[in-house]
Specification:
Distance between the termini: 74 Å
Helix content: 10-25%
Keywords: Signal
Radius of gyration: 24 Å
CATH class of one domain: Mainly Beta
Largest sheet: 5 strands, mixed
Order of helices and strands: HEEEEEEEEEE
CATH architecture of one domain: Sandwich
Low-confidence stretches: none
Organism: Aquimarina addita
Protein name: Lipoprotein
Length: about 170
């Protein structure tokens, strides 16, 4: 009888330890880039048109490595998809800030009057806590999703874009 109870207790402890280990383990973040970064920076931009858009563009110039593809960047609480050039040596990601609409919100007891109100934009929370100008880059290597942290992403001077108009 005592032997059975100790076996059950042993199995129970193993199961709890396995569950706790899985819960605590998040994605492994490398501190050394898996490929050579030749240059990396972020450049804020703003439209010169009144009521125009603002945002920033991230640039990564890398030494080509056939088995690594950069996919996304987590920066300033945002998740940004990276697009690559044909030869996989330059990756660019662009983020556009949501425009604060000056339209009034219609509040009424009649739901049909509120029908044309815009749905508020919900921003997805990123899974990483980052300091100012830090970023985490998601990449694919050997068909596995992996991450590395870039400690300081330099910021260039703001670029003015006269043609970016509000929607």
């Amino acid at each position: 009888m005592m032997k059975t109870e100790s076996r059950i207790l042993y199995v129970l402890i193993i199961c709890i330890a396995a569950i706790c280990t899985q819960c605590a383990s998040g994605p492994k973040i490398e501190t050394v880039a898996p490929l050579k970064l030749l240059d990396a920076y972020v450049q804020p931009w703003a439209s010169e048109v009144e009521g125009g858009k603002t945002g920033f563009t991230v640039h990564f110039f890398v030494e080509k490595k056939a088995d690594i593809i950069l996919k996304e960047i987590y920066y300033k609480g945002k998740k940004i998809e990276l697009q690559s050039t044909q030869n996989l040596t330059e990756y660019i990601g662009q983020y556009t800030n949501s425009i604060i609409s000056k339209k009034e919100i219609i509040m009424s007891s009649d739901p049909m009057e509120e029908f044309n109100n815009q749905v508020p934009l919900i921003i997805e929370k990123t899974p990483f806590e980052l300091e100012e100008n830090e970023c985490i880059i998601e990449y694919i290597q050997d068909d596995k999703k992996q991450y590395f942290k870039l400690g300081m992403l330099p910021e260039k001077e703001m670029e003015r874009q006269p043609t970016v108009k509000p929607e």
